[in-house]
Model the fold of this input.
Amino acid sequence: MNAGKHERARTEEFARVSEIQLKDVSVAFATTGGTPGSSEARGHVESSEARGSVGSSDVEGIVGNSGGSAKSGIRFVLQEVDLEVRRGDWIAIIGRNGSGKSTLGRVMAGLLPVSRGVCERGDGRVQLVFQNPDAQIVGETVWEDVCFGLENLAVPTEEMPARAEAALSKVGLLEKKDADVSTLSGGQKQLLAVAGCLAMQAEVLIFDEATSMLDPESRASLLRVAADLHLTGRTVVWITQWMDEVVRAERVAALETGRVVFEGTPEQFFYGRDGEDSPSDRLHFAPPYAVQVARALEQTGVALRTRPLLPEQVGDAL
Ligand SMILES: Nc1ncnc2c1ncn2[C@@H]1O[C@H](COP(=O)(O)OP(=O)(O)OP(=O)(O)O)[C@@H](O)[C@H]1O
Done:
């Protein structure tokens, strides 16, 4: 097989098994206003599939800039990111404010072009749920809102009711289908956004700090819905700063100033690999309660059988 064929076969194989692969991806933003009118400057991407606003600043993403270093007026906010999200994964993306989490989420969703590197997506539809519940509501009623994406996708009218109903029922909002969206709580609005994604048959859901404006009960219910979707085969990318949400993930990628500085399991993140220091300590993320209890027990000489991440796992570890 010649090199070209081999590469194509590998790519096809990849597209079957995987949803998103980022290889050497960098994203730059112009800091002094982009290149208006240039087809290559599309940092503020309007997509018919985007539910909500993507970036509101007057600067624009730079595409096709093959230069490696930041020059005057251009700032790289993601650099050399290699990350693979496989079908059915639940990956948490964490990092401080400004570390590049949302930018990464938007790149994964295809809403933001990369300046350098390759971003490959498999066949599945990728949808984003944004932080601000109000940013992604477009309909006046729950029903209208969930149908909005379907209209954009030109789904035949006769197919819409079944798809909208199934999606609303999945998130527990079917009874509210005629409600005015202004009467929904923040948590219900986020669930409505998820329903919109489901109606559009999203395979990959990217939650961009989607719980950060919610009360504890709404947070828990959004997490439950995400966990349920994951169980039924959806891929979940969960961007967060909450460490007790990180433990729900199968994998964690930590960003620091636009670079991936850790990738591994939550257990490896909070407890360290093979005796190494805990990456969460090194990166100054306070571990969740169960991890703190486990560490305190170990310090008093208690040998634990497992490394608990959730409160309900502490008993089993003793
Ligand atoms: N459209 C834009 N134009 C210019 N700079 C941008 C733009 N969007 C983001 N940035 C900058 O890129 C960096 C990364 O931003 P990003 O929103 O991805 O970080 P984040 O980790 O999601 O932060 P937060 O937790 O505050 O949402 C920040 O310094 C931000 O100011």
Summary: The two ends are 55 Å apart (CA to CA). Residues 216-231 form the longest helix (16 residues). Residues 5-17, 33-71 have pLDDT under 50 and may be disordered.
